[in-house]
Design brief:
The complex is a heterodimer. By secondary structure, chain A is an alpha+beta fold. Chain A is built from 2 helices and 4 strands; from the N terminus they run E-H-E-H-E-E. Chain A is globular, with a radius of gyration of 11 Å. In chain B, helix 5 links the parallel strand 3 and strand 4. The relative contact order of chain B is 0.26. Chain B is an alpha/beta fold. In chain B, helix 1 runs parallel beside helix 4. The chains are: A alpha+beta, B alpha/beta. Chains A and B meet through helix 1 and helix 2 of A and helix 1 and helix 4 of B.
Chain lengths: 79, 137
């Protein structure tokens, strides 16, 4: 369990690829710089897609925590 | 997304839901990674973009076996038209109907779903594709 404080949680568990990534992109676009977003995803594709998008979009991947049947991605809106 | 990315251009020929979905997944992925995306609708894919026909059952390709078909149909993934809307929302996506296919099937601009941006000839599509990849689906 992560102890990092987040500003918004997106529970995308059960969504198929690329749903969780698209939900994250939507949230980041609407958010403020500095805010942290947590995405819960059970989609295997998210494990590669979210880090790849974060790097490309020059956002910040704070943490990836595997949990029971899903992963928790914490992304900070850096710009 | 500062640097200018090479476009991804998809020639959409097949009109079955599986192939339309596969193409839409590529489109939304490329768009989210900052690549301009060009879709060129030909033949059976163009037919699937007619007004009022987007949401209907477009069947599956012949490769789909009797065992796979129900699995594909019951999958919780989003409809290809929703994926294309998301692609347009996050990136630069142009959906163009092939002028030849429009003519062949007697389809007019007013017969197309509003997600289609326009009608284009093949040379204009290739100009948009420029030095990026062209994928035929």
């Amino acid at each position: 369990m992560s102890t990092i404080q987040v500003d918004k949680t997106i529970d995308a568990r059960g969504m198929a690829c690329p749903g969780p990534l698209m939900a994250l992109i939507g949230a980041i676009r609407q958010g403020q710089v500095g805010e942290r977003f947590e995405v819960l995803s059970s989609d295997e594709g998210s494990k590669t897609d979210i880090p790849a998008w974060v790097a490309k979009a020059k956002q910040e991947l704070v943490e990836v925590v595997p949990d029971d049947g899903y992963s928790r991605f914490i992304v900070r809106k850096a710009r | 997304m500062d640097e200018q990315e090479k476009p991804l251009s998809l020639v959409m020929f097949s009109g079955t839901d599986d192939k339309l979905t596969a193409a839409a997944v590529l489109a939304v992925g490329a768009a989210s990674m900052g690549r301009p995306v060009n879709l060129f609708l030909q033949y059976y894919a163009l037919d699937a973009f007619r007004a009022g026909k987007v949401g209907v059952d477009h069947a599956l390709s012949p490769e789909a076996t009797a065992a796979q078909a129900p699995v594909i149909r019951s999958h919780k993934g989003q409809h290809w038209s929703e994926l294309l809307k998301q692609a347009k929302d996050v990136g630069e996506v142009s959906i163009q109907a092939c002028a030849l296919s429009m003519d062949m099937f007697g389809i007019g601009r007013e017969d197309l779903d509003p997600i289609v941006d326009g009608i284009e000839g093949v040379a204009a599509f290739m100009a948009s594709a420029s030095d990026g990849q062209v994928v035929f689906i």
